[in-house]
Amino acid sequence: MSRRSVVLTVCAAVVVALLGVAAFAPLPFTIMYPGITANTLGSYPEKASDGQQPQQVITITGATVRQTSGALRMTTIEATAPQDSVSLLQAVRAWPNPREAVVPHDAVYPAGQNVQQVNATNQQEMTESQSDATTAALSYLHLDAAKVKVTINLASVGGPSAGLMFTLGIVDLLDGNGTGKAGAAGDLTNGANIAGTGAIDGAGKVSEVGGVALKTKAAARDGATVFLVPSSECSDARANTPAGLRLVPVDTLGQAVNALKALQQGTGTVPSC
Fold it and tell me: Where are the membrane-spanning stretches (predicted)?
């Protein structure tokens, strides 16, 4: 073998070795994917599993609660744990997959925060979201918050993105057909499996939350046929939308209720992304 051939062989071996190391070396990325959904009108988990007993997601005292049908599903996304490294090989494999998203690690886990701090922030946002959802729903129904108490139990989920679906769950349990009058008959869902996402404030304004393209996958996986989404995130929601899932943009609680009423009654206009 000539000297040139030896040099080329050694160089090739070095390159292969470097590529092998690079393929498994940790990168500053996190992989996200569709998470759990929970019916805010029912219990979570919906069936007992791994020793976890179902618990009612929304409990209301101080007012008559209706027997509901259908589902109003809040949706989530999950991510690789902050201590788990993502290799180049994993990132390349996940990148073209519509059911996964590769994002900068700091976009999910802010630099300088440990797992406990991230979880604490997410739980604080969830607590505020539940409070705003209760305020928005009771205000919409003209009910006295001093008399009607709402408890939301979904300890395994953090962040603000379930606000809209919590609010609609409270409205449906107390109202039903979206008249704004507690005790009204009918169902806000008309028995359908509705999912959605969106933060909400006490005045009923819906705002964007992120991760919509993955949440639509979670919704479709769990049987939803309609997905409520903040209108500013329509373009993200349209990315590889699962077949059979109807996207309905909303900016306020009132718009969401009106859209569901139009869907259940088959009359009026239902907005579309």
Answer: none
